[in-house]
Amino acid sequence: MEESLLKAAATNDLKLLNFCLENNISINSTNMNGLTALHIAAKEGNLEIVEQLISMGADINAKTQMGNTALHIAALSGKDQVADFLIENNANINAQTNRGFTALYMSAQQNHISIAKALLSAGANPYLLADVLPS
After folding, report:
1. CB–CB of 83/71 below 8 Å?
2. Is pLDDT of 132 > 80?
3. Where are the ANK repeats (predicted)?
4. Average pLDDT value over all residues in the chain
């Protein structure tokens, strides 16, 4: 049944999402890579699903096995509206992946300037360095 929740997030199916949650599927259940419905909805840019998941108590700072949060994924994917919503709802703007990457680093690396600006405006630390960068 967890697969149905993840499918709902991927396909922007609010009706299926609500059905899953009404039937006691854990809102923070993951696939084998540690992706939650929130991570998947963020990747796909499904803002309505992201909003519903957060309003129902999804962990906004849940990390995948690689240490990515939904904000990292939205920043990397260039999903401006999702990133803005996550920032406005107190996602950890300085969270680092297992390799030390921040959402700011990822958005800048992918040339998603509006997300980088939003992160900086929200107080993201531009001096956090990834572990893979030379010192």
Report:
1. yes
2. no
3. 33-65, 66-98, 99-131
4. 95
